[in-house]
Structures are given as C-alpha cells and as structure tokens.
Amino acid sequence: MVVEDQNLESGGSVRVVIKGESHLRNVLWGPVRWIKMLAKELHWSFVFGVVSLYGINQGLGGSLGRVATEYYMKDVQKVQPSESQALTAITKIPWIIKPLWGILTDVLPIYGFHRRPYFVLAGVLGVVSMLFISVLGNLHLYLALLWMTIASAAMAIADVTIDACTAYNSIKHPSLASDMQSLCSLSSSIGALLGFFMSGILVHLVGSKGVFGLLTLPFALASVVGMVFSESHVPGFSYKQVMSQCLSFNQRESTDSCFVSIQVNQKFIDAGRAMWRTMKCSDVWRPSLYMYISLALSLNIHEGLFYWFTDSKDGPLFAQETVGFILSIGSVGSILGATLYQLVLKDHAFRGICLWTQLLFALAGMLDLILVLRLNLKLGLPDYLFIVVDEVVSQMIGRLKWMPLLVLTSKLCPHGIEGTFFALLMSIDNAGFMTSSWLGGVLLHVLKVTRTEFGNLWLAVLIRNVLRVSPLFVLFLVPKGDQNTFKLPGEIIGEDSDSDEEKEEAQNLELASLVHSADRR
Fold first, then answer.
1. Max Cα–Cα distance, the chain, nearest Å
2. What would the pLDDT profile of 444-492 be if each residue is shown by its tens digit?
3. Torsion sign across C-alpha atoms 195, 198, 203, 207
4. Rounded CA separation 28/339 (Å)
5. Strand ranges (DSSP E) for 303-434?
6. Eight-class DSSP state of 55
7. Rounded to 5 degrees, what angle do the CA atoms 118, 122, 124 make?
8. Nearest-5° angle of CA 189, CA 64, CA 317?
9. Which has the closest alpha carbon to 460: 394, 365, 374, 326?
10. Which residues share a beta bridge with 482?
11. Any idea what the Cα angle at residue 308 is, between residues 202 and 378, rounded to 5°?
C-alpha cells in the first residue's frame, strides 16, 4: 500500500513509501514514486518543464556552454584570464534584469497565455544565437559576446518563467516547497553531470564552435515545453485594439477601452507598491542582503585556475577530455549535496545550515590552495586524483550552501506577483554572482595572473578563501525559523483576503489576471 507520509498543518514535507516492502526496494523505487507524486499533485507538464529547463537546457546545455566558452575564449579569441573572467560576467546581465522578464510574463499575455509563449520565444532566441556563433567564421570578440548575451537572455527568460510556476506552486503547496527545489536541483545536477562528461569529448571532436551548434537542441526543447505546458487561457484582451481606440476619441467605445487601459495601469502601479511594501519588510530585505553578500564575497577566480590547469608548465596540463571528465565528477558532488539536503537537512533551521555550510565552503577552498602549491605531490597524491576529490567536495558543499537559500527565496514571494518578485530576488543573487566574477577578475589582474604567469595564483586562492568566511559576520540577517514553517506575515502574502477577486488571482499563475479583471469591468 502506498502511503504519503506528510504533515500539511505543520508544513512538513511529503515522503512516499510503501508499507510491507523492503527498505532496499523503497530506496530504489522511491525516486520514481516521488516523481509520480509530484506529477499528480502539480501536473505532469510542470514536472516535464522543470526537468527539461533545469535539467537539459540549464544543466546539460549550461555545462556544455561553460566548457565551450572557456576554450573559445582561450583558444579562439585568445584573451587573458582576467579579461575572460570580466567578459563572461557581462553575459550574466540578462539574469540581473530578471524582474523585467518576470513583469513581461506576469502582465503581458501573448495570444491569451502568460507562460507558454515565453518558453517558445526563449527557445527561438537561443537557437538563433547559437547558430550565429557556430556558423560565422572570424567573429569579432564583442560580436561573439553579444550573441552569447542573447543566448543568456533566452535562458534567463525560460528560467524566470518556470521560476514563476515554481514559486506559485511553493505557495499553493507549501508542504512540497522543499521537494520542488530538490527536483530542480537534482535535475540541474544530473544534467550538468551528463553535460560536463560529454563536454571535453565534444570540444576535442568538433571544437568549441561545434559545441555551440549542438546547443541549439537544448534551446529547441524550451520551445517544446511551451507547446505542451498546461496553463489557463486568459480571455481576449487586445492591446492593439486598446491603443488604436485610445487614439480614436471620436469612437464611443474608445472611452471604455481607455478606461480599461487606465485601470490596468493602476493595477501595475498597485503591484509595484506591493513589491516595494514587501521589500521593506525586514523578513525580506534582511535575508536578501545576506544572500547578496555571501555570493559577492565568494570571489570567483575560476578562469585563473582553468588556465593554470590547461596551460601552465608547472600545472597538471589536463587535456580537454580530462577537464570535462573532472567537471562531470564534480557534478556527482552536486547531486550528493542535493540528495543529502533532501534526506537530512531540509527540515533544519535556516541560520544553522547557513552557518555550517559557509564554514565548510571556506574550508573546501583550501583544497585548491594545496593543489596550486603542489603540496599534494609532496603527500604522494597525484593531480588527477586530488582534483577529482577537490571538485566533488566543493560542488557538494556549494549545493548544500545554495539549497536553503533557494527555499528561502521561494517563500519570500507574495501572492499574485510570484513571478516578478521571485525574479527580483533571484536578480539580487545573480548580481552577487556577477560581482563575485568581476572582483575575481580584478584580483587576478592586480596579482598579474596571465595566460603564462601563475606565480601569484596561490595568493588569489588564499584571499578568496579568507573572504568566504566574512559573510558569517552578517549571519544575523538570516531568519531563525525552520524551512517548512517559515512564511511571511499574512498581510504581506495576502492570505487574509477573502474576496472573490483575490481568490481568483491566487488560483492563477500570473499577476496578469489583473488585466482580465479590469477587462470585465
């Protein structure tokens, strides 16, 4: 007999087991039953969208794109590691303006749908940009950077759209919030595992530009998600008709249409005020500030390490296939981190998890220092074995550090503007990532770490590790509550309202139901 072990009143998570079966069989078949339970509770198209976008588009496609971009910048464009660090950070700008994509998906329906067309649009933009980079020869650095940024924007649009659905379902099904984040993280980690495993081989066989051509397939899948995604249709509201009638004052119906437009604009203003009111809530801005600080001060010096791995005569001199395999093994650590969080840590308090994961994150960085100083060879540990252990441990702890922050972010979103507000919070996180990359590039430049000179790379690693401890001084910004019971005050998330209109808005995925309600007046 299948039993869903859950405690909805206390906000506990759901665990699917079968009484009478052995523990081993439950462990083996548990993930399958878990996926089926999520598909039943949340609709199969949502689960398909999460797996396709987080797993294949971002996980597999993102990992292939990361390795291809690194070799493209190093071998094709021949830039310095600090320059590569700064330029690739520019491609993350579309992720910082995620609220813009969130507003578009929330308030601007296309053919009566608020999610499906944006999945399709993201797929088309990604396919076109990847084709241009892969087909055009001798592409100028900044033109290539432009197409990479467009591809990043395509992935960000798809991400913010599925994020909106995840945030909405996290509020509608609070007992499944941690399960949904686990599904997202596991999908991303498994996709990254496969992508990194194939990346080195594919770069060796078809080159970095050939890999960009293959990346059209994950983007095309985003369009498929848009075609099959289950979403309520919003009855016809013609923006063209409103604009034309507002310009034709001699028509009687133009007054009504302009009135509708004014009402919709007022709703947008009200939504903006609701977002500002929510951000002023200490339960929102304090953890948001902590997330930015913890990410920004964890300096990213990956490009310096990558050049050292592959170019330095004093370094390991790893081949392309080896780099891909090492990164894929690191994805195993990410999967282990997501699994460990799902099984053991998802019911613990936010502050306690952030404390220990931040400490472990700083300690894990010392493995890079040992490798750069070549102390592993003095201990009799070969480079290949040591860096595999380093990558697994670092990715596992990094995932454990990130998971509770994702859960916290999903719980900070008020009703009706889930997509836009979740995008706003995630843009703060992405700003932290970009700040980390730029500061890391500055550090590499100041310490004169170049394509051929790595004498001060160890010092860059040491400074990065020390700064990883600094977010603990602002740990008081993180709420003390546990991950299942924490929620915003009722007046912020809108649970106290019993009006029919607000109930209808809470049942929809989007803030754009405001457009429909204004159209009915």
1. 87
2. 999 999 888 888 999 999 999 999 999 999 888 887 766 666 666 665 5
3. negative
4. 14
5. none
6. I
7. 115
8. 100
9. 365
10. 349
11. 115
